[in-house]
Amino acid sequence: MSIVFHQVKEGEFRRLAETKTMTKILAQESSEIPNKFHLVGIDQVNGIGYAVRHGRTAELRVWRIDILVNQARDMGFQKIDVQLQ
User: What's the superkingdom here (predicted)?
Assistant: First the structure.
């Protein structure tokens, strides 16, 4: 199954996490900024991926890994996969 990706703002990402739409999240290392990561959520049932973008631009947001781990916990996830470049 191929996954279709959508870029969403952080508030929408959190809403999708709260409603359990996303069943998996991962931190994908940025190819442009070393040691910074993009936050991606996967809806495994419908084959949809969600990446967090900036509020005013279409560029993906980046964070340090420790910040993403804290966000994952805040959203109720107990596991986050990490993908390095």
Answer: Bacteria
Domains parsed from the chain with CATH numbers = 4-83 (3.30.720)
> Hey, which residues does 52 pair with through a beta bridge?
8
CB count in 10 Å sphere of residue 72 = 19
How far is the C-alpha of 54 from the C-alpha of 59, rounded, in Å?
6
pTM of the predicted structure, to 2 decimals:
0.89
Region of residue 38 (left: phi > 0; alpha: psi -120 to 50; beta: else): beta
Tokens of 26: 């991962």
- Tokens matching residue 62: 């980046």
- Compute the distance between CA of residue 27 and CA of residue 77 in angstroms, rounded to an integer: 13
